[in-house]
Each structure stands twice: as structure tokens, then as C-alpha cells.
Amino acid sequence: MALPTPRPWDQAADGLLTQADLPAGWHLATRFPGERADDASDEMDRVLGYDDQAPGGGDGASEQNETAEGRWRYIEHEATATRVMIRLQRQLYATPEEVRITGVIYLPWRPGDPITSHLLRELPTAKIEAAINKRLFAMKRVTTVTGDQVVLPSGRKISDRELLKPLGNPKQVPDFYELVALQHGKLSGQGDDNPSATMAQVNGVALSTAQGWVAKARSRGLLPPGRRGRAG
Question: What digits encode the pLDDT tens for the residues 166-190?
Fold first, then answer.
């Protein structure tokens, strides 16, 4: 069956942000910010004075030069009709590559309504970032599932229920960091808010040790990027 033709006026057409990336209660509007039929992200940056491609002072070097141009996307909160525009930007030199929210425009349903700090804290920016990166991230480990077993790169087979057992010594266990990634992913998939802390308890190690395992798994491309400044 032929795939549907992408609609150029649909802000989800490029796959940067999809409805599945948003928490319950949030809706990805069909058209671009401002009910536009075209992507006006570059124009919005110019109006806001937020041109990340503009040369900087001094030697012109900037962390912004390590990013791809930002794209504004328009979402709505269904219960309150709050309109929010978020600026998504690919971090090209991150390992692995990731997407971050680098700008937010918050518009209450009724123009002139006040915006409180409580309302701003409720914006699910961290959840949206995490969902995007989880979807875009391509796992580099080579694992296959046969029935209820996971086949690791070494050929070792383990069952899904074994993923929540102690992992052992990283110097003695083959595929150790693949197992770290699988255990972390299992806990995250169960809704654990701090899987690294749970891993420390399961494995009988200090929290810093479990966090070090997770950091190594991330550096090897076995886990998607973590949220900066956030436990887990």
C-alpha cells in the first residue's frame, strides 16, 4: 500500500515533533505557529532577535555554532486552550545527537490573562524533549528478541525477567553495558522516575556507581541522551 504524501503545511511532516511525543492533554496543531500554511521559523527568529546563525563577537565562536537551525512548533493544551510555541533545535555535536527545546512562547487562551510561575512550571518541556530523543535515537547495540529472550552481541541469551536481577561485575560479565542499558530501559519503561537509584538498590552498589554505569552506556551509544540536571 502506498504511503500518504507528506503535506507541506503540516508541521509534523518532517518528523521533528509528532503527536506521540506530547503528554496526555496536549495537542499538536496541524498548521504552523500563527495558523500559517508554511514554516515561518526563520521569520520568527528574526522578529524575536534570536538568529542563531548570526556571527557573534570576538572570534565568532559560540556553542550555538554546534547546533542546527531551530524550528518553532505550535502545541495546544486541550483543557485550557493554552497555546504554546516551542523552538526545537538539533544538537549536532552531542554524543549521540539530540534535540533540545531552546525557546518557549506561552500564550493564554484569552489575550491579556496573566501568566503565573505555577503555569510555567507545568509546561512539560522535559517530557517532550525526552520523548523526542527516545523516538529519534537509533540504538547501536545489536540485540534481537527470540520469543521471550534477548540475544546479546556475545550470543548470550537472557529472558526479559532477568533484566531486573543484579548485573554482576562489569569486568567479568560479557555485554555488561548492554545489560546496563537494558535494565535502565526496563525500569524507565515501567515508569520509574529515577532508574539509576533503583539500579543501585537492585545491584547493591552506591548510587554514584550506578550513575557511572549509565553514563558509560550513554557514551557508548547504548542509551539515548539524558535530561541535563535531572536524576535518572
Answer: 999 988 888 898 899 889 888 887 8
Q: Can you give the pTM of this predicted structure?
A: 0.57
Residue 60 and residue 91: Cα distance in Å, rounded? 18
Quick one: pLDDT at residue 132? 85
